[in-house]
Amino acid sequence: MVELFTCSHYRFASAMGQPVRISLMLPRWRPEARDWPVCWTLCVRWRYFNADDWEQQYLAQLDRYGVAAIRSELEGIAAEHDTTQLVLLCFERQIDPHGCHRRTFARWWWRHTRESVPELDPAPHTPLGERWATDQLTQTGPGQYEVSSVEEPTEEE
Ligand SMILES: [Zn+2]
Fold it and tell me: Which pLDDT score, from 0 to 100, does residue 137 have?
């Protein structure tokens, strides 16, 4: 079973797992990123990249591929790199719940599989950072989703 995480290109560290690019662009300051695998089913597309309704278009893309095809691509990447931990990477750091596709994917994945995809960028300057792991996506109609966040007990030492 493959465990999924998300992080920004800025804060990714190799101890987190196998990096998987889901951004269109490469992080220029990380030359090693040229060798990272790309998950095409989860990449945004140029045609809606800057559109106001990019999130709905991205969700429609995820719905079109579906869980089975996405899982199969991710498991193939994991097997090829001999790992069980994949870290899905894109650029955004200071973002709201609708500001970045890696968290949109995480919510969609949770909605359909009940498997959570924690965010690993601590983004201390982003108050929303901590609760992304528990954001839920509720389908309210065909191609329509709503985000709600759920309080989970925090683990304390
Ligand atoms: Zn993103």
Answer: 53
CA of 101 to the centre of ligand 1 (A): 4
* C-alpha 62 – ligand 1 centre gap (Å): 14
Give the per-residue pLDDT at 139.
58
Domain extent, residue 133, equals: 3-149
56 near 62, Cβ under 8 Å?
Answer: no
Burial label, 7 (beta-carbon count in 10 A; 0-12, 13-18, 19+)? buried
Domain count, the chain: 1
Give residue 8 CA to ligand 1 midpoint distance, Å: 8
Q: Is 21 contained in some domain?
A: yes
Tell me the mean pLDDT per 10 residues along the chain, length 157. 90 91 92 95 92 93 97 98 96 72 91 88 51 51 54 45
The alpha carbon of 156 and the centre of ligand 1 are apart by a number of angstroms equal to 30
Ligand 1 centroid distance, CA of 1 (Å): 24
What is the spatial distance between Cα 67 and Cα 10, in angstroms, rounded to a whole number?
28
Position 117 in a domain = yes
